[in-house]
Amino acid sequence: MKLKDILKAAGNKYATVASDGLEGSDVKGFISTGSYAFNALLSGSIHGGIPDNKIIALAGEQATGKTYFALNVVREFLNSDPNAMVMYFDTEQAITSDLLKDRGIDTDRVAVLPVATVEEFRHQCVLSVDKYLEADKDSRPRMMIVLDSLGMLSTEKEMNDTAEGKNTRDMTRAQVTKAAFRVLTIKLGHARIPLLMTNHTYDVVGCLSDAVSVLMEDGTAKPISQIVVGDKVQTLGGSSSVTELFSYDVSDTFEVELSDGTVFRATPNHKFLTRDGLWKPISELSEGEEILTVKQDSHS
């Protein structure tokens, strides 16, 4: 009996013997970013760039050039193949035909799809990839998908809550986003379609970050990763000694953004003290609810 015979019985249409090459995983080429330095950072070669079959994110603060570099990649991708095409999912209504033309991009080979929710993006992307896979492999033109940006996508729940005048924070967004990429990852890899997305980054304070600072008894701050048993730290009830350290592996987290822009990320059961004196898990906090926190300039 051969290994290939067992693979057939498994019924996995994407399965293959490793020595034959892993179609959905092996990187066979790169797409230039238009910058030798950026190419080298991403692939180790100035002639490289982003992998031709992976999901890549350009993350950074606002106005740091994420869309600029994404459009550079689009131009280089189209210039590398006269038959190549791009599907550009625009969540910010920021892309115009004039902008594309000014960047030297062939607008006849770029489709712009405005989307507002994660579910819309997932649905339209899956349908497009499935249609692409229907064509004979040898006749398919190269294709790339761009999502600009992930952070601006809402969810159907959030849209419905807003329409109904509800102020509750959408705690399902992280799970919906994860589900979307679980569906897309294998399909995109098998189709050899790279997905380039942009996303905003924010200063995050939370129980999951090694960089989170803890206020010590003497008024200094110390990263939580450097805390040791015996250290004296400040608590709401005064100073107290650390008696035990814990470390957890977690998959699901929640975020709360404060009015001053601070973002707390924590596990679902991590509790916060609210203004009314109740300790509430982060998953149960609602928009507009006041929580008691240490002043940011004293611990972050």
Task: Give structural attributes.
300 residues; alpha/beta; Rossmann fold; Endonuclease - Pi-scei, Chain A, domain 1; 7 helices; 21% strand
Work out the helix count: 7
Order of helices and strands: HEHEEHEHEHEHHEEEEEEEEEE
> Helicity, in percent?
25-40%
Low-confidence stretches: 294-300
Give an overview in words:
By secondary structure, the protein is α/β, with parallel strands linked by helices. Helices cover 27% and strands 21% of the residues. It contains 7 helices and 16 strands. A 5-stranded parallel β-sheet has the order 3-7-6-4-5, with helices on one face. The chain has a 3-stranded mixed β-sheet with strand order 8-14-13, with no helix packed on it. It has a two-stranded antiparallel sheet with strand order 1-2. Strand 9 and strand 10 (221-223) form a beta hairpin. Helix 5 runs parallel beside helix 7. The relative contact order is 0.11.
Layout of helices and strands:
Blueprint: H1 3-10, E1 30-31, H2 36-43, E2 50-51, E3 55-60, H3 66-79, E4 85-90, H4 97-102, E5 110-114, H5 118-134, E6 143-148, H6 156-163, H7 173-191, E7 195-200, E8 204-206, E9 213-215, E10 221-223, E11 232-235, E12 238-241, E13 254-257, E14 263-266, E15 271-273, E16 279-281
Helix pairs in contact: 5-7
Short description:
By secondary structure, the protein is of the alpha/beta class.
